[in-house]
Amino acid sequence: MKTVEGVDTTNNSPITQPQNIQQAILAALTQARQVCDQQGNNSPECSVAWDRIEELQAQNAHQQQLKHYLTSLESYCERYPDALECLIYDL
C-alpha cells in the first residue's frame, strides 16, 4: 500500500475496472460512506473517497456527451443495408 502523508494512494479506481460506470459510482459511494464512518468526516481518507466519486460522476457525464445519435439516414441504413442509398462503392 502506497501512502503519502498517511493517505492511501493506491489506484483502486473503479474507472480502470471493466464495469459499468453506474455500478462503479454506487460501489465508490458505499466505500466512501464506510471510510467516512470509520475515519471521520474530516479525515483525508474521507476526502479522497468523495473525490473519487466526483471523478466518476464527471467521467459519466463526459461519456454521456460523447454518445453518437444516429441520423435518419444511418438508422435507415441499419434497417435496410442493401438499399441504394446505403451502398458504398470502392473506386
Automatic annotation (TrEMBL):
Lineage, top-rank taxon, reads Bacteria
Q: Which GO biological process categories is it annotated with? A: negative regulation of reductive pentose-phosphate cycle
Q: Which Pfam families match?
A: CP12
Which parts of the sequence belong to the CP12 domain? 21-91
Q: Which InterPro entries does the record cross-reference, listed alphabetically? A: CP12-like, CP12_dom
Name the SMART domains on file: CP12
Q: What is the name attached to this protein's record?
A: Calvin cycle protein CP12
